[in-house]
Amino acid sequence: MSTPSLLILAGDGIGPEVMAEVRRIIDWYGAKRDLPFDVSEGLVGGCSYDAHGTPLTDETMARAQEVDAVLLGAVGGPAYDNLDFSVKPERGLLRLRKEMDLYANLRPAQCFDALADFSSLKRDVVAGLDIMIVRELTSGIYFGEPRGIIQEGNERVGINTQRYTESEIERVARSAFELARRRGNKVCSMEKANVMESGVLWREVVQKIGDTEYPDVELSHMYADAGAMQLCRWPKQFDVIVTDNLFGDLLSDAAAMLTGSLGMLPSASLGAPMENGRPKALYEPVHGSAPDITGQGKANPIACILSFAMALRYSFDKGNEADRLEKAVEKVLADGLRTADLLGEDGATPVTTSEMGDAILAALDASL
Ligand code: IPM
Ligand code: MG
């Protein structure tokens, strides 16, 4: 097979600084594991708007469609808050998701033992937590038509539309069931079938896919509000959660905080297989651009590094190498190394973004 290709879109805020550490890890795999990548770079978000007047150029969009995987840092920042909706940094990311048709967004919430005390929940509620939220990413209220702000009589009305087709629900349900088979074999589907027709259809279709194609996987359903409550009460009851775009946005932020820091969590957004059998894919940290700490060496590169681990696993079929990288991260955390987002314990060793990168590289070397 030819050298796998990666497009790096570091984006705004802390995106470039955390991505710099990922670049070193990518180079390490080329040098030490005979796993070279053909890396190209581009702009997305506010930096693309500054350079080209658009948060994503057609050329970059086309490149994203060609490569084996896209790695994205973060988009957005206060400088862009007042831009028109159509050119806001976030539109660049939404365009990538939509045009690449990345319908299954995998957001693991895993609590590293060394960090269990950082959670706002009690240690025994979160220690050992390992759940996966599968969020539908290309439809629902984020993209439904009609949308907009219209004039009605003497006032304005803001409109968005929640809309799901059966096939959109089917394909993301299959992604969730497939993942569950490789994990704890349980899926919990969340919607609000008590108030929304789209929720009624969602529940019916997920149940049908479960009954007909995955009878071996345990399936349950929950209203999304109750699901949010259960996530905070006893999150370890879950294995895979499958839900729509908006509920998934909210539930995954809540799940993220169970683990102590948003600076730890990776994500994968996957679409249909390409000709070479690899899924269309984009990997990004769950955290945002954190403009308040940009350029100070305070950012935690781990979420972005673990996103690359997900790329190794889901795009390049290198589960062993992904394990190696995840173990290296676990090792440095167990050794007490902490970026600014994780300070506060006795005996912790404060490190900068690049020192965290150094330590993970050293742990990788030690793994050989
Ligand atoms: C996320 C973010 C995005 C979303 C924004 C940046 C468009 O919150 O990936 O969760 O709402 O999907
Ligand atoms: Mg979000």
TrEMBL record:
Q: Which GO terms describe its molecular function?
A: 3-isopropylmalate dehydrogenase activity; magnesium ion binding; NAD binding
Per the similarity annotation, which family is this?
Belongs to the isocitrate and isopropylmalate dehydrogenases family. LeuB type 1 subfamily.
The cofactor(s) it depends on are: Mg(2+); Mn(2+)
Q: Where is this site: Important for catalysis?
A: 142, 192
Q: Where does Mg(2+) bind?
A: 225, 249, 253
Which compartments is it annotated to reside in? Cytoplasm
> What residues does substrate bind to?
97, 107, 135, 225
Record PANTHER family: 3-ISOPROPYLMALATE DEHYDROGENASE (PTHR42979:SF1)
Report domain Isopropylmalate dehydrogenase-like positions: 5-360
Cite a single GO BP annotation. Answer: L-leucine biosynthetic process
Organism of origin is Primorskyibacter flagellatus
User: What name does the UniProt record give this protein?
Assistant: 3-isopropylmalate dehydrogenase
Q: Name one Pfam family in it.
A: Iso_dh
Kindly state which keywords UniProt assigns to this record, in alphabetical order. Answer: Amino-acid biosynthesis, Branched-chain amino acid biosynthesis, Cytoplasm, Leucine biosynthesis, Magnesium, Manganese, Metal-binding, NAD, Oxidoreductase
